[in-house]
Amino acid sequence: MSTRLPTALLAGAALLTLAACGSGAATPAAAESGRPTVVASTDVYGSIAAAVGGGLVDVRSIIDSPNADPHEYEATPTDAAAVAEATVVVINGGGYDDFASRLVESAGTNPAVVDAVALSGLDAGHEDQATHDHGEFNEHVWYDLGTVRTVADAIAADLGTADRANAATYTANAQAFGAELDTLQQKVDALKAARQGERIAVTEPVPLYLTDAAGLQNVTPEAFSEAVEQGNDPAAAVLAETLQVVPTARAVVANAQTESTSTQEVEKAAAAANVPVLQFTETLPDGVDSYVAWQSAQLDALAGALNRAA
């Protein structure tokens, strides 16, 4: 059975439908400190909020370690208090971080909520957007650069509503962040120009928005990556099929935060066939606090692996 890095398992619950960009007033904590507060479900969104807020905003990421898995995270009373006092709450949505949605529902306050999946629009037309073969929605939308830009703009708008004196600064910071995203897009475009149509394999669908944008073809059997994502062992026939396609790929992109005997078998097959294996993540690596720096390094690693495999 697949093992994610240790966290407590949450009982299932229905996802609260949230407004993508609210207009909640500043909460007591923000009023007392004179600074807006942003609570993000993961440090990916926390880093985006920090780029937009600059030194004017206090940002707290509930999950800020690569050792925690948002799918299985169990919220604490401290998390609940932080959300209840937040000016803005940033979540991924789409069922990825349900714990954050439940915290907002039970907060009893009115923070503005930025829901990345809702803002992305990808769930409405997902049959053409980085899906599994059978149309399963890929909720890892922070790998879609357009969505990240929209999230940054929404955070700026909500902070500007709560802190009108600094609204122009938040807007300018979001625009500067957008310019940094443009540099990432340039790397994606260059990779597409050089490597469009080349085959990759993945252990989970985590990076597919980015790799699809780069024109790379995912050849992993959908049943394999879906099983791994759900924490299950794929059927023996599915694993066998996956091991057959791995040597035909130019690179394997693995989720560094998920390990199982099946993913280990994939990595062994890649090594035997001299196929580079890249370790992508769902949260920021230790020592990294910039979304742009993180994704830039991952794109460079992917380009380097494909160049070596050529």
TrEMBL record:
Transmembrane segments: none annotated. It is found in: Cell envelope. Gene3D superfamilies: Nitrogenase molybdenum iron protein domain. Keywords: Coiled coil, Metal-binding, Signal, Transport. PROSITE patterns: PROKAR_LIPOPROTEIN. Residues 174-201 form a coiled coil. Residues 1-25 form the signal peptide. This is Zinc ABC transporter substrate-binding protein. It comes from Pseudonocardia xishanensis.
